[in-house]
Amino acid sequence: RVHEYSNQSGFRRNIRVCNTLIDMYVKCGCLEGARRVFIEMEERTVFTWSAMIQGLAIHGQAKEALTSFNKMIEIGIKPNGVTFIGLLHACGHMGWVDEGRRFFYSMTTEYGIIPQIEHYGCMVDLLSRAGFLQEAYEFIRNMPIKPNGVVWGALLGGCRVHKNIDLAEEASRQLDQLDPLNNGYHVVLSNIYAEAERWEDVARVRKLMRNLGVKKTPGWSSITVDGVVHEFVAGDETHPQAEKIFQMWEKLLDGMKLKGYIPNTSVVLLDIEEKEKEKFLYRHSEKLALTFGLMNTPPGTPIRIMKNLRVCEDCHAAFKLISEIVNREIVVRDRNRFHCFQAGSCSCGDYW
């Protein structure tokens, strides 16, 4: 509606309005809308190109993001710091370490741009995700500016993915000084211990959280249907359609199992029985939101879900299968990026 109104009101040639439209479409998970605005623009500034590069990056279209950058350079538009945040995000979401290093160092050597804390954070995230944890740690130690909680948090996140407890504890010590009341960092450390079945350490971290008055942020997922936002939390039984949602999920589960689905209970970091872990998995908030969406939207229409935490490995595998079973495009915006599930695959290439 905003896009249509801007066109009718004569703002089609207003660069600032078009840049904002690109940003809006990107944040709503509608990359095609952003592309359409970009293509229709008669004039594009560095802000236009940077917004498009960033949008492509968080939607898993890293190759197109880098191609866009090359086109931008070819036509003589000089990049800025925001451009490189997009490029580093693109590399980080695909694990392109060499390309990321090259872009980071070219900022100063080729374009005279001094990296800011956001660029250092992107580099630590890139290295950590790819498993270069020691290099990421040394990179932090050699930063010319003081690292903040986001930088150390990126290292901590990589430690969880690659199960490096020693570096996780070092990152946690730094975060205790920089951001002691951030529940997310305590939860990540607790989960690292839980994956290693170090339950005493899990209890110690949780006790520390209680003493600090820090509570774990509950995971939630939301979906908009007919202009109404429906929000779900894990295990939610309060929704008016809860019973129908659970019944529909069982039908989806049968179809998934025929395609080889096996519940990944390793993501349930609780010391409980296997059957209880499966039940817990099946009530993840994004699964409830998706099932509700399938029940209440016309066949063939895209489903868009917003989630406040990182999507888990089991939900990711399930959504790939469901996208194929129901022949739908499913777009999930988690804490880090967009996942576009279609025909049994995801735009992230299973790297997130």
What features would you describe in this structure?
The chain has 3 domains: 1-115, Serine Threonine Protein Phosphatase 5, Tetratricopeptide repeat (Alpha Horseshoe), CATH 1.25.40.10; 116-217, Serine Threonine Protein Phosphatase 5, Tetratricopeptide repeat; 220-346, no CATH class. It is 60% helix and 8% strand. The chain is built from 17 helices and 6 strands. It has helices spanning 2-8, 15-27, 31-40, 46-58, 62-74, 81-94, 97-109, 117-129, 133-141, 149-162, 165-178, 183-195, 199-212, 242-258, 274-282, 285-296, 313-325, and strands at residues 220-225, 228-233, 303-307, 330-333, 338-342, 345-346. The chain has a 6-stranded mixed beta sheet, with helices on one face. Strand 3, helix 17 (313-325) and strand 4 form a beta-alpha-beta unit. The two termini are 32 Å apart. Belongs to the PPR family. PCMP-H subfamily.
Q: pLDDT average, as an integer?
A: 94
Strand order of the largest sheet: 2-1-3-4-5-6
Given helix and strand content, the structural type is alpha+beta
Give a quick account of the main beta sheet: strands, pairing sense, barrel closure: 6 strands, mixed
Overall morphology = globular
Query: Treating each run of at least 4 consecutive H or I residues as one helix, how many helices?
Result: 17
Taken together, the total number of domains comes to 3
Poorly predicted parts: none
Proportion in β-strands:
5-15%
| Rg of Cα set | 22 Å
| Element-level helix/strand string | HHHHHHHHHHHHHEEHHHEHEEE
Helix content: 55-70%
The termini sit apart by 32 Å
E-strand count: 6
